[in-house]
Amino acid sequence: MTPTPRVKTFRIDGRDVVGREDQTVLEVARENDIRIPTLCHLDGLTDIGACRMCLVEVQGWGRLVPSCVTKPEEGMVVVSQSERLARYRRTILEFLFSERNHVCAVCVSNGHCELQDLAEEVGMTHVRVPYRYPGLAVDASHGRFVADHNRCILCARCVRVCGEVEGAHTWDVSGRGIQSLVITDLAAPWGESDTCTGCGKCVQVCPTGALTEKGHSVAEMSKRRQFLPYLATMREGRR
Fold first, then answer.
1. Are 179 and 99 in contact (CB under 8 A)?
2. Is the pLDDT of residue 207 over 90?
């Protein structure tokens, strides 16, 4: 018999909150309508703490921690909004924009992009670091979808939804550090994948214009995420 998770009482931004020990600080914050920005997080998928947008301060810890993978502890004091965190989040966004080629004006997801939305939220009007301008490939070999590595932020949502929900395990991450790329199978073109089921879940969970449907022009690609409540329900069932 699985034991009932214990309840933890702690504080976020001066508010007393209550959460289960199997929840994360991010989950408890959202249950209490406390806004913490995220990019790689998606309800129903395993959290990996990749984007670091959800960093928070915990009193006495001496370091910033990602709220999506941090469990609540009795009496802990969490700060989710501060000048320090605002600087970190803006810097992270600037690095993401400079690492690849995010040219919003010609992107099919312009106006429907989570990266773009966060940049507006933090007031990012320019990037203070040099752009890398990598010459990355655009894979249009699939009959229905396109993968544009220039717009990928390596959130790994596609990897997780393909493995955890669809069960195909088509997507993975190849390389290390700045050389990392999401790939299908063993770096085969997407259209030649033996494992892809063509379900499109990876496209719909992508937060940017990296994975899109064919046939869309600038600003026309809006992600359809009707199945996301199902992901959250399945996640609750696995606890």
1. no
2. yes
The phi, psi pair for 191, rounded to 5°, reads -70, -15
CATH number corresponding to 7-81:
3.10.20.740
Q: Among candidates 184, 35, 190, which has minimal Cα distance to 121?
A: 35
Dump pLDDT digits (tens) for 24-54: 999 999 999 999 999 999 998 999 999 999 9
The predicted-structure confidence for 60-85, as pLDDT tens digits, reads as follows 999 999 999 999 999 999 999 999 99
Catalogue the E-assigned strands of the chain: 7-12, 15-20, 55-58, 64-66, 77-79, 138-139, 145-148, 171-174, 181-184, 211-213
pTM confidence score: 0.92
Domain segments of the chain: what residues?
Answer: 7-81, 87-238
- 204 contacts 196 by C-beta, under 8 angstroms: no
Domain 87-238 indexed as CATH 3.90.1010.10: no
